Amino acid sequence: MAIGKTAIEAVGVTKIFQSSGQDSLKALDNVSVTIGENEFFTLLGPSGCGKTTLLRLIAGFDFPTDGQILLHGQDIAPLPPFQRPVNTVFQNYALFPHMTVGQNIGFGLEMQGKPKAQVEARVAEMLRLVQMEELKNRRTSQISGGQQQRVALARALAPEPKVLLLDEPLSALDYKLRKEMQIELKRLQNETGITFIFVTHDQEEALTMSDRIAVMSKGKILQVGSPRDIYDRPAVRFVANFIGETNFLEGKVVSTAKGQAKIALDSGATISAGLGEGAKPSGKVTVVVRPEHASLVAASGKATLSGKLENIVYFGTDTHYHVKLNGGGEFTIRHQNVHAGALGFEKGDKVGVLFGAEAARVLRD
Amino acid sequence: MATPREIAVAAEQRDIRNRWLLSSPALIIIFLAAIGPLFVVLLYSFMLKGDYGDVKPWQFSSDGWFGVFLQRDIFDDTLTIADAHISIFWRSVKLSLVTTLVTLFLGFPTAYFIATRPPQRRDIWLFLVTIPFWTNILIRTFAMQEVIRNEGIVNSVMIWIGLISAPVQIMFTDWAILFGMAYVYLPLMVLPLYASMEKIDFRLVEAGYDLYATRLQVLWRIIIPLVKPGIIAGSILVFIPSLGAYVTPRVLGGGKNMMLGNLIELQFGQGRNWPLGAALSITLMIIVTFALLVYVRNASKSGGSHG
Fold first, then answer.
1. Which residues lie below 8 Å from residue A121, measured CB to CB, with a gap of 6+?
2. Which residues of A touch B207 (CB under 8 A)?
3. Is residue B105 part of a domain?
4. DSSP assignment letter at B6
5. B68 belongs to a structural domain
6. For residues A140 and A101, what is the distance between their CA atoms, to the nearest angstrom?
7. Nearest residue on chain B to A114, judged by CA atoms?
8. Any idea what the CATH number is for the domain that residue B275 is in?
9. Spatial separation of the C-alpha atoms in residues A9 and A12, rounded to whole Å
């Protein structure tokens, strides 16, 4: 995906936390990433992967051990948080309990020394933006979790930051409210045109909202790309495994040509699979196929793989077929349920699995 | 056969009886140990003083109350304002206020320091703060004397480094009383301050910095409003005992720099004027109650205007 002007750029950022004793924790290991203006950028990874640390370095709550953080080309890493045009929406909102909703939203502007009338006008505007005009004089303890979330957003957006940082802001909400807020966040980002950097461990959240996603693990960024890139073309096993469900097939490279490789699987069959840009694998490799990118067919010569249908699990919107492959290994196929009814296979049937080279992908490691 | 209604009424009556029965030990203690003696003090303040202390029972007089702010000339019996009492009242209020302020200014950073340590180490710091409580107040006061007397640590060190050439007289001044009281009552300020600081979610501080507040603004606009209950509690805990302090002004202030506690003691001892002593005690109580009312009302009002 093409990136416009750069908003935030991390260059070789390393963060080591010196804990008590000799053991120190490398939370970020030489991380470099470029985030464009007006982009909804998500840092996705399991807890402890360094995503929140990177966010806190951008906000200024911690300082990098090594490397630079550039905002529009200027290194902001040494600046204290109150000198950075960057605002944060905290995981538990961190609303000031001794102030009203309106005072919370106006706090940033007031600290910037804006005249009272201007602060008032902007607070009213923000309250309108998050649809909470009537709650201006409420205490933050007197409003619901979803409303607190909106206040936290409005408070962070009020000073018109260059970049908005969101630290798992939806994790405290229930499922339905989370869905609503995902759409709401996307709308706010479109309306304000501010760069959003969103931290989450929820892959679904990342896929539905982001322009681009960076998948992180153990202090490193493993892959950066659009949600479709990340989902359809995972580069490494961790990304394939962390996001969605995946079938892993082990095999050896027979030949490579034009971004495709012929792989002789350990189970005996030979398949074609797509390659990452510039990749020239050899020897043992892993191929991934998403469950919904393969289809279940009758056992015949046309099938890519063959095996025995072991289990059928009905999920409402779709059905999962678990196939025991001939020659070892398992394969799951997800089939969208349609009005016409089931596929007509029974447990124990001999079946074939069909997928093309574009559905299979060779991993980098 | 009792109807269900009768059973319900009987159960309710039994409940009420049990409630009184269970709370009676506490009620007896409160009446015997707190309200009873107070009533005796009030009664004594309206009686005629005995010739060798005590009071002449059931001979009522308002002399005790007159003596609080007035004095009768021993030669011509004219009444004049009791300057000595007024100055003692004023000194007590003044020193107690300053002590409260000093302990607040010393205690705030101390409590903040402890509250920002890792949880395991906070206990050690709190333990250190409470250690002086294990020692008798008289001993602590004499220890303070050792620090501030003319040949004491402070003067010796200042002379040794050449800051002064002759010892500075601190003992038997209001300063000595102030130092002593600030030292003795500091833990009473630190502990409630710590208790409310410990509850602060320090992400609020981060949120403040994130929203362009400088360190000073974060302190003023976020930390202090959140610690306010601790500031109120600490100030009350320091101000009230300071106002009635007895040991510290006696040891460090000497005979001339009396505070209310010493004045009251004097009436029951050498003064042999129990009604005056009783009236002074009640006056002290009225001052404390009044100060508390004003303080708590102001504090809760300004807390309310915040939002």
1. none
2. 88, 90, 94-96
3. yes
4. H
5. no
6. 6
7. B212
8. 1.10.3720.10
9. 10
Q: Is B224 on the interface with A (CB under 8 A)?
A: no
User: For chain B, how long is the longest CA-to-CA vector?
Assistant: 98
In a domain, B73, yes or no: no
Q: Report d(CA B241, CA B69) in Å as an integer.
A: 22
Kindly state whether B304 is in contact with chain A, defined as any CB-CB distance less than 8 angstroms: no
Interface test with chain B among A98, A136, A160, by most B beta carbons within 10 Å: A98
Domain identity same for B27 and B158: no
Complex ipTM value: 0.83
Could you read off the pLDDT of A60-96 as tens digits, one per residue? 999 999 999 999 999 998 899 999 999 999 998 999 9
Q: Mean pLDDT over residues A83-110, rounded?
A: 94
Interface touch A88/B210, C-beta < 8 Å: yes
Mean pLDDT of A296-302: 83
Give the range of the structural domain holding residue B236, as residue numbers without chain letter.
83-305
Map tokens 């196939």 to a residue: A323
DSSP label at residue A132 = -
Q: Are residues B139 and B206 in the same domain?
A: yes
- Indicate whether B172 and B288 sit together in one domain: yes
Is the per-residue pLDDT at A323 higher than 60? yes
> The pTM is what?
0.80
Domain count across chain B: 2
pLDDT digit string (tens) for B64-99?
898 888 887 777 778 888 888 999 999 999 999 999
Residue B156, domain member (yes or no): yes
What domains, with CATH codes, occur in chain A? 6-232 (3.40.50.300), 247-362 (2.40.50.140)
CA of B106, closest CA in chain A: separation in Å?
Answer: 25
Per residue in B213-252, pLDDT tens?
999 999 999 999 999 999 999 999 999 999 989 999 999 9
Tokens of B32: 């015997």
DSSP string of A238-275?
HHHHHSS--EEEEEEEEEEETTEEEEEETTS-EEEEE-
B212, A111: Cβ pair inside 8 Å?
yes
Q: Residue A5 above 80 pLDDT?
A: yes
Same domain, B30 and B124: no
pLDDT value at B304 more than 50: no
Of A81, A95, A97, the CB nearest to B209: A81
Domain match, B145 and B257 both: yes
